[in-house]
Amino acid sequence: MSNLAYVGMVCALCFSAIGSGLGAGLAAQSAVGGWKKCYSEGKPAPFIMVAFAGAPLTQTIYGFLLMNFINSAFQATGNMLMCLGVGVFGGLAIGLSAFLQGKVAACSADALAETGKGTANYFIVVGIVETVALFTLVFSMLLLNS
């Protein structure tokens, strides 16, 4: 396999994972802060904030899937540059989605801790940001199969 195709595969996974790590880190910090706020005010601490902290982790899975699709596409077509481009830009887009999803999840955890309301609304907006990563994965797959 060409080194460029390998670079594309590595970028797809690594950029996605970096975004997931950063996003989950942001959201987890906010969840912990929200729990602290609840405990200090004598309010129940919503366990559901764990889901906010973990939401950005799915983008690592999308990066792994994209890495495998790039490998399959290279085996089928031998197009190194397409594999490199899809890996770099697809990985960056998925990672950016994960990072920003973490920021949205952090705000959601903070708001839920303060008000105790709006859980469904918060998950909807977290899911909207997730959709960017899903679209990137699907459109990258279509590009690799063209």
UniProtKB/TrEMBL annotation:
The keyword Membrane applies. Keywords: Membrane, Transmembrane, Transmembrane helix. InterPro entries: ATPase_proteolipid_c-like_dom, F/V-ATP_Csub_sf. Coiled coil: none annotated. One of its GO terms (cellular component) is proton-transporting two-sector ATPase complex, proton-transporting domain. It is found in: Membrane. One of its GO terms (molecular function) is proton transmembrane transporter activity. The keyword Transmembrane helix applies. The chain crosses the membrane at residues 47-69, 81-100, 120-144. It is a multi-pass membrane protein. Its main location: membrane. Residues 84-143 form the V-ATPase proteolipid subunit C-like domain. This is V-type ATP synthase subunit K. The lineage of its organism: Bacteria, Pseudomonadati, Spirochaetota, Spirochaetia, Spirochaetales.
